[in-house]
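Dear support,

I submitted the protein below through the web form. The confirmation email said the job was done, but the results page showed an empty box. After a refresh the structure appeared. I'm attaching both so you can tell me whether what I see now is the final result or a partial one.
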Amino acid sequence: MAEPDGVSRLRADALRVGYGERDVLQGVDVPLPEGQITAIVGANACGKSTLLRTFARLLEPTGGSVLLDGAEIARLPTRDVAKRLGFLPQSPVPPEGLTVEDLVHRGRFPHQRLGRRSTAEDAERVDWAMHATGVHDLKDRPLDRLSGGQRQRAWIALALAQDTPILLLDEPTTYLDLAHQLEVLDLLVDLNEQGRTIVIVLHDLNHACRYAHHLVALESGHVHAAGAPQAIVDEVLVKQVFSLDSRVIPDPVTGTPMCVPIGRRAARAASTS
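What the results page shows now:
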């Protein structure tokens, strides 16, 4: 597999990760290009979230390693990692009654000493994160009174307030309607253009092709292919990774690959026409 263009501050080398006696990831090499948006795609249970959680140091490898700036992430102090890498899990659940501003303030934890009050810099970064994500006007509102898209933007504001150069997001568009999905993805593009490296797990291959510079396609715990969407996404990949017959055509808006699935009914209709 070819190395991606650019430097990889975060990478997996021969990574194996399992639950019990079963390895979900089976010796994968995944360098993540700095300054780009990388989307991790694949069928359910292929290891997407496992890979992202291992990058975030929430899972311990059974073999291989995750390197952050050349050092094994498992050996780095937690606060040091939290200053360089932010992680947004899938469908996070906040404590009851928490307001948007309370939530976003929690992102400043890595920069605060034990027992020390928030500083002017903390307040400035929280304010900036809420403005950047469009939730500043909602800062006094409880999270449970927000729409799905507003809540997701509030969680992204938390990750932004952490002020890290690398952001990892696990399926941030899950449970959102189409308009809110695009709202979140457009926000991630804006953040990337400000210099952040973004790694995102996505279910929607077309969204991944449209928004990511670099794709990692997982199949049964292995890297099936990695590279620019235009270079790797075709009907063969869709069949092998998703077990789906399709036509892959240029997206009429962006020119990136667009997968048009062929279901059984459509296939039968085509064969009889």
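Response: this is the final, complete result; the empty box was a page-load delay. The CA atoms of residues 142 and 226 lie 41 Å apart.
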